[in-house]
Amino acid sequence: MSKIEKLQQNKMKNYDHLAVVKLAPFVTNVQLNRPQQRNALNGNLWQEIGDCFNFLASDPDTRVVDVQSV
What we know:
With 70 residues, the chain is of the alpha+beta class. The chain contains 2 helices and 3 strands, in the order H-E-E-H-E.
């Protein structure tokens, strides 16, 4: 699998504990979305954060990442 195919596959990925939204050109919002656990960080959430930020680091359409919690 090429790097481009891997990026495209990751771009389509839905996260269980993150909500990722483009707010404006070059601005992406990442929300921690585990309100019933008060957004406590667990292994699954850390994995999703890592996957998401690895993708955003190589995304030419993202220059700013705004991180929030729900």
